[in-house]
Structure formats: structure tokens, C-alpha cells
Amino acid sequence: MKERIETFKRRLEAAAGKRKADLLLMNVRLVDVYTEEIRPASIAVYDGRIVAIDPAPGTEAERVIDGGGMYAVPGFMDAHVHVETTLLTPEALAEVIVPWGTTTLMVDAMEIANVAGEEGLLAMVEGAEKLPFRMFLEIPSRVPTAPGLETTGGVLGPKEVRSLLERNESVSLGELDPSKVLDLKDEYLEKILTALDNGKICNGHAIGLGPLELNMYASAHLTDDHECVTFEELRDRLRTGISVFIREGSSERNAKRLLAGVAEHRLPTENLMFCTDDKHVQDIAAEGHIGYNVKLAVEAGIDPVKAIRMATLNTAKHFRMEEHLGSLTPGRLADILLLPDLKEMRPAMVIKDGMVVAENGRAVPVPAKDYPARLFDTVHVSETISEESFTVTSEGKRARCRVIDLIPDQIINNAAEAWFDVCGGKIAADPARDLLKLSVVERYGKNGRVSTAFVRGFRLERGALAASVSHDHHNIVVVGTNERDMLLAVRELQRLHGGFAAAADGEIKASVALPLAGLMSPEPAATVMAQMETANAAVRALGCPMSAPFMTLSFISLPTVPELGLTDVGLIDVLAHTTCPLVLETEE
């Protein structure tokens, strides 16, 4: 304690101008997220924290930076993100997000936990203090997401969740989908109570809920939701005291519609925040990260200072961290962005803990980290898998089948139906009508199951796509026009120990290796982006017009996103939380 007191004294002396500061940031226009004003200022930093705004005359510093009249704003915060779906390790991700001004991530590491349990989760966050951004944990609440309806590699039960919630870097219990709460499932209610006992909030995933169901959801202390698609859904959640994380990912393009509604109806923004949830690296590099959400808010007509507050102080307050983050005020950690203007939201300089971590679009280098060897060996496809594994059988000459009908730029889908011809007791894909086969292949070597259904929306004219990134179980998911190319794509992922693959005409057209848990690449961001550009171009050549085809593919197997999902167990009626038959009716 004595040492802490002495450190505390030195910080207070620096605040009073009696001790040399580490950094003096001069000549800036400070964006005050408390008073929502912009004013000329200078900022003194000592020991990684802001100690004074407009410090005493004559204050000295080890380093002085002239801000040149740029806007000084707090570092941007992502309220909910799965690092794994960027396809990068946290170390490689730094070079992409930090130059765009993101200095704090609230990470739900449920993806790697579903693959490798607590060991995988802890391996990913180990050494996070060395990163040029902060990582806090939203402790995964549903590993597996749908017990009994999917096979996973790892499990986090109440005991593991309790232990993880006690860690210093944990800030919340991660997203809980409606069925866990509305069906009064003891395991998940216990996890909620454990979080509350530890003084942590509980994150929501209130997809598809109306006002009556939201009453129960909010009563269970689920404090937020990132699944709003319409403005009406956003308003319903605010009316029940549930905060909203406005999301803009690669396949979930929600922000523009929601922000337009907020601006049109002049809603208060204090309980609105931003998240990316799932965004591929090349989209981050091209558009930006949380700063892109802020930019969209300004373009929608929201005051720039309010938009910045949504990305900073609102998030800090929501996670009960405002005494450390979210504002440029004395005592807070010195995470500071210098912005030339408040339209583009692209910083010229990014400061974390009082140290420059990015300048003019380039981040400081971050050394790669060694991960356990076991995490590079998680894809174990059954040796018995064959083209026949993807067969759909039926009696009669025609069959009416359920179809997963994709909704562009959303992860939700519609449950549709279509008639298929039956030839020799089998139903084939029908690319002419955009009715393709979709299969999930169990990849943990536990049972070797393969389930198959039909999907509409990919518009593949030939070939197949496969991914070992398939939320949340992360078995292999493959969509195709024919069984031969589907099998080829799956075998390629087995060879790569995970990743993405496109096959056509009996050969691999492109692939991306993601061997770390079958989710991430250990390569630098630039390498992964180049590989993804090649893969996406190969997919376009097969007829698919999607901008993020592999991201779309990765969400089809979710058993918690309406209306239909597909796992290795079978086709899932999401709202009923049960399997359902693929073939509904046959005709002779």
C-alpha cells in the first residue's frame, strides 16, 4: 500500500504542476463528452493518465506535442466484438483497428471457447496488456449455444463462468439469447446471478423479441442488445431500459437505418453505443472500425459530439468504467485521438496510456505471440465422409422442402418452402432457381455427423464454398451446387486445419488458411487481406455477388438466429428450439 500511495502522490503532484509531466498535448480543440462542448485546451499526462486540462502555466513535460488545432477526443470503444471473426489474432488486429482510433474492445471470446474451451479463451487474452489497445472480457455465457442441438469442442458451465467472471479483465456476462431466459433454464439463470454477485452487467442478444417478451428479458437484468434491425426494435428496447449497441459488421449492415431513425425521431442518445460484432479485416481496413459507425451517425444528422459520446463515454458508463475510460478528464487513462475533422473521423494520431501508438494511418508494430500447439489441430473430419454424405433422400417424384431464405445484409433469414424433383430417391440442388445444398460437417472428431438442407440467396452458378468459421459451434459449413465440389472444399479445410475454401469443376479455386482454432490466421493483416481478396474474387467468378460471402456462410448454421438454422444435428426451428424435418410433403 505504501508504494501505491507514493505513486498516487506523484500523480497528484503532476496534476498541480509540481512534477514534470510525461506528455503535454498543446493547442487542441477538446471534445468534452460531459458538457457536449468543444473548446481550446491543452492536456497534461503523467503515468498513463490525464492529470490536468489546461495545466498550470510553466508546466514542463518530457514530451510536448503540438496538436495543430486538431480535435482531441477520447479513444473509441467497441461495445461488443468477437475478435475471432476478424480472422486475425489480437496482435495482428492491432495494426488494423488502432490507426482508425479504436483503443478499447469489449470482447466476447465465445468463438474460440466453443472450439477449445477455457484454455482457448485464456490463450487468446494472455499478454493483452502489451497490445496498443485494451481488451476486456464479456465472459461467454453460452458455450455451447444450443446444448443438444449442436456439437462443440469446448464447454463453459457455471463453474468455469464463475471463475472467469472473477478475473480482473472481465466486465460482463456475455450475450444471452432469448431461449436461455424466456424458457427459465437454471444453468443460465445461475450465470446471470453469478455475474450480478460479482458486480458485472449481463449482455443481451434479444433478436426477434417484441415488447411483451422484452419485459421478461429486462427483468432478468439483460442490459443491452446488439441485434436491432429496425428503428422500432431499437425504440422498444430503450422503452424497457435496455441499451442498444448499434452494429455495423460485414454481413450485418444495421447502422444507417437505425441512426436515421434516431435522428428523425430526435431520440436521446445516452443509452446508445456502437459495436462491430463481426467484421472481416478487409472491411475494417477499407471503411474503418468504430470510427466508421461514428461517421455514419454524423451523416445521419446526429450532432458530432453526441456521436463521439456514443462511442466513448456512453460505453464506459454502461460497463461501469467511466472513472477510467470514456472522457478526456483528469484521472482517466490517457487514450486520446487527434482528429483533423469531425466528418471523416479518421485520426492523424492515436495515443494510448499517454504513448503514441499510431500516426498517419500506421500503428506501432506488435510482435507475434506463440499460441499452444493444440490450438492449431482442431479440425478432425471423419475419414468416412464422401459425396454420399451430402445426399438428401425422399420418396415420390416431387418433394416440398423447407428452404433457408437469406435476407441481404442481415444474419436473420426467412423460413421458405420449395418443390424439388426427386430422381432415383434423391434430391439435387437446383442452381437455376438459386436453391443450393447446405451442409454442416462435424469437425471435432466426436461423431462424424453430416446434416444437409437447402438455402436460397447465394446465387452460385457452379461449385461450392466451405468454412470452418460457423457460429457458434464452428463445425464446417459448406454450400454448393454439387456434392463433388462440396466434398473437395471440405477436404481442403481439413488439409489447412481450418479456413475458407472455394471449389469448382473438381478443383480448388481459392483458399484461406485459418489454422488457429480453425478461426484465425497467425499471419499479418496484410497477408490475410490479400488472401481474402483472392478468395472473394474466386467466389464472384462462380456467380455469387455477395460482398462478404464467407461471413454470410458462417451465420447460416446459428441455431439462435431466426428463423431456421442448420447444425450437425439437423435443421433447427430457431423459435421452437428444436429440430424440424426438411421434407414436408411428397407427390407421386
How much helix, percentage-wise, in residues?
25-40%
Give me the secondary-structure category: alpha/beta
Q: What's the main sheet like? A: 9 strands, mixed
| Uncertain stretches of 5 or more adjacent residues | none
Q: Radius of gyration in whole Å, from Cα?
A: 25 Å
Q: Compute the number of strand runs.
A: 31
Distance between the termini: 83 Å
Query: Beta-sheet strand percentage?
Result: 25-35%
Average pLDDT over all residues = 96
Number of helices: 16
| Coarse morphology | elongated
Characterization of this structure:
The chain is of the alpha/beta class. It is built from 16 helices and 31 strands. The strands form six sheets. Strands 1, 2, 3, 4, 5, 14, 15, 16 and 17 form a nine-stranded mixed sheet that branches. A hairpin with an 8-residue loop joins strand 24 (464-467) and strand 25 (476-480). The radius of gyration is 25 Å and the shape is elongated.
